[in-house]
Amino acid sequence: MASDNLGVEYTFLGNSGLKVSNLCLGCMQFGKSKSKIHGAIFNNPRQLLEEASHEVMSKYAGLGGNFFDTADVYSFGESERILGKWLEANGRDKYVVASKVRFTTDQTDPNKEGLSRRHIMASIDRSLDNLKTNYLDLYQTHMWDPAVPIIETLRALNDLVRINKIRYFGCSNVKGWQLQKIVDTCKEIGMSPPISLQQQYSLLSRYSELEEFEVCANEGIGILPYSPLHNGLLTDKFKRGAQLAATDTRVGWLASFPNPFFQWDQYKDNDRYYHLIDVLSGIAKKNSRTIPQVSLRWLLQKQSVASVIVGATSVKQLEENMCAGKGWKLGDDEMEQLDEMTNVVVEYPHGRLNQSSANRIGSNPFLKH
Q: Please, are residues 141 and 101 in contact by the beta-carbon 8 Å criterion?
């Protein structure tokens, strides 16, 4: 581990004046819950209890990190409560704190989910209470809600800004047209648009480049990639054809549920995946780094990425991830090689038609596109 460059750099979050460390500590792994909502994700044996969580947070802050990301649904409030206790003891105002709203934490109440005004206003108060603070720096819609008019959601968020319960708002897990609709509606009603988009993004998940990140670049929205190591697959610990135990890795745990949303089967005998790992290994050795560090560095050098959300189940794992944060870069040839190896299959209308010379004739260099 190249500890000589251990730490972070600071960037602006989108076109706001908010400065965040380029590595954000994701708090999804803090706290446990035996609830069966959401497939018992938060009963994972690798989830951290309070003391271990606080050790990871303290190490992160000690290395210069100032940006924490959680959600009301993470361990059904326990992640927020664990973070809140740490913030209370370590000075809340030194840190940028983000949470999210959308998913249910109580299936007995139909109004305790979604992006209605009622649910947003109730959820922010619970989150603030859990986090032991009177404001959030960033409040994010966790996913699009097709049952609620977007103007209702946005007016509620704008009211939270006006009464100083949140400083900024962002979005997560949206499609390109949804993000553009959010931005355009904000402009129509005279409120500030979102400053961030938190989206799954890694060398193994690049589809958002086709639409969502085009909106981000055009509208000044900072990208916050989550699952940057794709549930740990961007490491060298998975062997071809392996049968994964549920207790050993997050991939194994997620794959153990009926109808899992993460399919190990699509990778375990995938030649393209193992070739990528071999190339990453070569780049890592050339730079005296590890495969995870190279994977994170690739993200940090992508357009519009403001901060990469990293998780950790130990201080050692956190330190390894934090070695991606400053003091070195991948070369242009290495970036291009990884880009070419992991490009998504581009079909109409994203492909040759929009990239042809006919589409560039008469273009205006002063316009954003």
A: yes
- Whichever domain contains 211, its CATH number is 3.20.20.100
Domain total of the chain:
1
Does residue 24 form part of some domain? yes
Catalytic: 95? no
Annotated active-site residue in 10, 60, 74, 348: 74
Cβ neighbours for 236, distance < 8 A, ≥ 6 positions apart? 277, 281, 291
Residue 140 belongs to a domain:
yes
Q: Model's pTM, two decimal places?
A: 0.93
Domain that holds residue 305: 3-234+291-327
pLDDT tens string, the chain, 369 residues long: the values are 455 678 899 999 999 999 999 999 999 999 988 776 665 677 777 889 999 999 999 999 999 999 999 999 999 999 999 999 999 999 999 999 999 999 988 888 889 999 999 999 999 999 999 999 999 999 999 999 999 999 999 999 999 999 999 999 999 999 999 999 999 999 999 999 999 999 999 999 999 999 999 999 999 999 999 999 998 899 988 877 666 655 566 666 666 665 555 667 788 888 999 999 999 999 999 999 999 999 999 999 999 999 999 999 999 999 999 999 999 999 999 999 999 999 998 888 887 666 655 566 666 666 665
Instruction: Dig out the tokens for 212 from the structure.
Output: 């969502």
Q: What does the radius of gyration of the chain's CA atoms come to, in whole angstroms?
A: 20
Residue 298 falls inside a structural domain = yes
